[in-house]
Amino acid sequence: MTAVPTWFGPADRPLFGWVHVPADNRAAGAVVLCPPVARELAATQVCYRFVAEELAAAGMLAIRFDYDGTGDSTGVDLDPQRVESWLASIRQAIDLARSCGAQSVSLIGMRVGALLAAVAAARLGSIDAVVLWDPCESGRAFVRQEAALLRLLSNDHQGTGDGTELPGFVFSAETVSHLGSLTVPADGARPSRVLLLTRPDRRPATKLTDALGTEPDLAEARGQELLLEVEPGSRETPHDVVAQVVSWLHRGNPASPGVVSISAQDAASVPFEGTRLTERTIRLGPAGLFAIVTEPNTPTGTPTVLMLNAGNDWHVGPNRLWVDLSRRWAAAGFRCVRFDESGLGDSPPRPEKPANLVRSPDAFDDVKDARFAVEPDDPTNVVLVGLCSGGYQALEDALVRPTRAIYAINPVLHFAPPELATGAMDPRRRICWPVSGLASTYRSWLAEPVRRRLRKVLWRSIHLLNRDRGRDASTWFDQLRIDGVEVLVVCGEDEARPFGTTPAETLGAAAGHDSIRLDVIEGLDGALMPAWQRAEVSRRLTDHLVGHFVPAEERPIARVASA
């Protein structure tokens, strides 16, 4: 099987996707995978990639793609006509499938993606089969549920105008209205077959299938809770359901195998706030790490920005922040590269290594390979950006080999490295504080009132222990200062605790030096779910980047581009 990245669709507003082609370049029809939206889009990335690979292995061409304004495609949340643009994106993905030579096209949609797939099938016609996977019958109910989830996760909101804020995303009033009124047209075309997958504890979404006018085959959408409703690091792909979907599509496919081919576009001109930028797909290092580079129209010789994975999210970053910053900073003259570490996102795992392993020791090799690939003449001429595990890895990497700057957002230093399950901790880890029995007792056994009273005592004990081990923050902050690395750490109060209980403990000899900065934002969410937090972090990073690496005479232009 071959997976080919490509831009497609309208030249003035390109979409991004992947075409998965069977190994013999022959396919019995094509399947277009319509993704969910908002938070559920990120949750299904690994699952959708696995579905596409299994479809190609079964002899079908598969296309997974990003709707307009999502993932790596052009646009943002608050652009007008979001719902119609998502439906247009499905049509353009179908056109891509047919341009590859597919004789029949089927659709898979999950959650809101299922609603969009049903509407697209009825509007467009000539669709063989539709898989409605745990569908949302009502866009209005989806928005209401996601908004309630954000209120449950965080009570820290500062308003979004007339929009509705969801976890990590904002829908305009127009989008909410259009999504709420979206229905399958009663006089639309009928797909030949429909498979309806429903969670075991819910009733089937028969309103959708009745509107489509095709008697559905029924099956259970088992494992959805473990895919959509758990922490990112605990997501599980429902392999049995995937196998059932692939078998159903393959078994009833009317097309005979025929030759398929793709003319991939590895670059596109992307509009952003009144200018156009170039984005290209590239591979980094011997492991073939997947990356997208955003290039300015007029390079300024500034350092290259490298953006690391946050946990097991893919290269678009936390709530798509890396895409926004890549384009914003490229408009200010910086070349930006967002990439997937080995085994994460769209990068293959290294030989004999597992996929989807967060905080793997291989991340040291991945960042090294990426640095030498983008700056072969001077691999120190990079700025590393990361959140959570990515922020931790950026700090570790700069201690191995200096870099121009580090932007670490909510870096997590206190965790159990995965290699401890089979042996000793990787010696390259200089700042990781392995989870101790004391910390485990504090988190697991003690009630919150007791934890509050013991918090300072606990952290002071941990700081003293790690200072003896040479892992205290003041020690390695001093080393980064000596090496000339600009450091900006932006974090919440809890994430700041590993850095020290007083400023002197935190910064050590670096205290008072502009090269080391620790910004603590009260209530900062670990994943930057509230919109104002993403905006504030973006502003602080942009001001620091422009202020340190853009000449003063050019700075007003760069600041306008990043506003």
Give a structural overview.
The protein has 563 residues and is α/β, with parallel strands linked by helices. It folds into two domains: 2-137 and 185-255, 3-Layer(aba) Sandwich (Rossmann fold); 268-433 and 471-562, Rossmann fold (3-Layer(aba) Sandwich). 37% of the residues lie in helices and 19% in strands. The protein contains 19 helices and 21 strands. The strands form four sheets. A nine-stranded mixed sheet has the order 13-14-15-17-16-18-19-20-21, sandwiched between helices. The chain has an eight-stranded mixed sheet with strand order 1-2-5-4-6-7-10-11, sandwiched between helices. Strand 10, helix 7 (206-212) and strand 11 form a beta-alpha-beta unit. Helix 3 crosses helix 4 (112-124) and helix 11 (362-374) packs across helix 12 (389-400). The longest helix is centred in the C-terminal third of the chain and has 21 residues, at 448-468. The two termini are 43 Å apart. Mean pLDDT is 89; it is low at 437-452 and 557-563.
Fraction in helix: 25-40%
The CATH architecture of the largest domain? 3-Layer(aba) Sandwich
Chain-averaged pLDDT: 89
Question: Structurally, how many domains make up the residues?
Answer: 2
Radius of gyration: 24 Å
Distance between the termini: 43 Å
CATH superfamily of the largest domain: Alpha/Beta hydrolase fold, catalytic domain
Main sheet: strand order: 13-14-15-17-16-18-19-20-21
**Roughly what fraction of the amino acids lie in strands?**
15-25%
